[in-house]
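Q: Predict the bound structure with adenosine-5'-triphosphate.
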Amino acid sequence: MSAPLLEVTDLRTHFLTRAGVAKAVDGVSFSLASGEILGLVGESGSGKSVTGFSLIGLVDPPGKIVGGSIRFAGRDLVGLPPEEMRALRGRRIAMVFQDPQATLNPVLTIGQQMALALQAHARVSDRAAAERAAAMLARVGIPEAATRLSNYPHEFSGGMRQRVAIAMALLNGPELIVADEPTTALDVSIQAQILAEMKALARESGTALIWISHDLATVSSLADRVLVMYAGRIVESGPVGEVLRAPRHPYTRGLLDSLPAMAEPGQRLRQIPGTAPSLLALSPGCPFAPRCPRADADCDAPPPRVEADGRLFLCHHPLEAAA
Amino acid sequence: MLGFVIQRLLQAALVMLAMSALVFVGVYAIGNPIDVLISPDATQDIRAEAIRRLGLDLPLWQQYLAFLGRLLRGDFGTSFVFGMPVLDLILSRLPATLELALAAVLIGTLVGVPLGVYAGYRPDSPVARAIMAVSVLGFSVPTFWVGLILILTFAVNLDWLPAGDRGPTVQVLGIGWSFLTLEGLSFLLLPALNLSLFKLAMMIRLSRAGTREAMLTDTVKFARAAGLKDRTILRRHVLRLISIPIVTVFGLELGSTLAFAVVTETIFSWPGVGKLIIDSITSLDRPVMVAYLVLVAFLFVTINLVVDLSYALLDPRLRRHGAAA
Ligand SMILES: Nc1ncnc2c1ncn2[C@@H]1O[C@H](COP(=O)(O)OP(=O)(O)OP(=O)(O)O)[C@@H](O)[C@H]1O
Ligand code: SF4
Ligand SMILES: [Mg+2]
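A: Predicted complex:
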């Protein structure tokens, strides 16, 4: 097998705040093949966005990658000179954000914004840029794309705006797109449409996709593999079907039980009790212990990392493997 | 858009009407110009004749109506002191002030905005700190003092630039302008710099604050994620995002500089309207004061109108005002 497109090893991104060090990403490892779709799920504050921003080298201060490596297409992105990282962003790794209302510049036409994205990486005339932008808008399902280039973001609906943002991300033909909850701000019906289109686009262009979501259901319909994140760590990962059918980590089970469509039959729908721990004061043991129904004295020690058959979990007392 | 323009024009006309009345009453209610214009030993006949000639015996409202009628015809009356039409008098001085004010605000903006944007982009760098120190100075050092220092340094000690006066002008459209010749510019430079210092400070503050805020937005983060260079982001995204407050302050500063450039005009013997109005206040030359204040109001209203209309150009979200929703 050839080397993976992306290989993240022991990534640590910490926020050095006045109150202390918030270990937002703490020892995250995973890899991603070309064209693969990876779901990254977890509750709010688990470090999903910070993981995504670490990949494109845009962690806001006081955040900083303090350890680990991000090998992308054979190069370590950690410590890459800023100008090289910039040249990579948008061209080989693109990112789509949650709120299209906030990401597009309200006072520039989308044609201007797409042209800037193209011209950041190559000499492209305004006319050629407009042609390529229109073609990409058409591909993401925007009708009358050529005439809409002169429109401003507020002249599009929420769903259309996010399509514009997706078109911008696809513009330079990146090998990897990091999509940070791009449908969360949208209506449910539009969410489903965009999800399906995004999957089709990624497949047909061979682009690898990291889809960040707090919603396991969304990820299940889209991803090949899933990473479950808790308190800055990957607590479980594996092929999406297997993980959903037979989660091994109690946290994954908890996430599943809080989904209407996936709760075990006859069981009441329930949220995971308690709240996510403060990242400032993590104990050496399992961070999920205060909320875990299976926790015992063992869990005061760091949980073992169990890896087998493409699945991985960090737990002293994992759930049974599927029969 | 057209409805919006018409609505704004009507508003502007109303404001002008109110202003003219206020100004007229305000100025005519203070002092007695006769005491200033006519020597106390003049005979009763001469006094009465002067009062009649100047229309000072009529009731105030009649004086105002007559004044308003003349105003609409562009006739602001005759200066008590100079004995010439007020409009001619002011117009002979206005270009000098206009030129000075515009130069000052332009310098303040063209220099201040890039400095402020940089200071907002790299707020912790030594350069940004130096820029902020300049802006603190600009706010806190009195204009007259800076003016004197400028004269002492560049005119007296170095002898590079003239110390005052307007120097040669070039006639365009029947009006004399300084900025069209190098020598004229040399006369304009020091007073314009003097006046621009405060505006510079203001523009630095304004664009620094705007840039700091803009840099934290998702818009800038998304542009970065697309691989745009920081320079491009500042030029194309940030500058556009902060343009509305900058244009607003540009207009306000232009208006207030036109109206109140008097300190600088006095220090540099710049023959503008600032000096004229001070002279007319001390001599209670009421037609000049009234016309001046009405003109100032007119300038403010016009500038506000232009600023309002330019909002629509700068922010597409405002453009559909009045258009079918
Ligand atoms: N600018 C910041 N300053 C300090 N700490 C931060 C900052 N940004 C993120 N963090 C820390 O990183 C943690 C993870 O944040 P992140 O945005 O990655 O969460 P998330 O999983 O994307 O959550 P959500 O679902 O709400 O988007 C936060 O809980 C916070 O402690
Ligand atoms: S290690 Fe213990 S506390 Fe943590 S998830 Fe497993 S059982 Fe629960
Ligand atoms: Mg997030």
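A: The longest strand of chain B covers residues 170-172.
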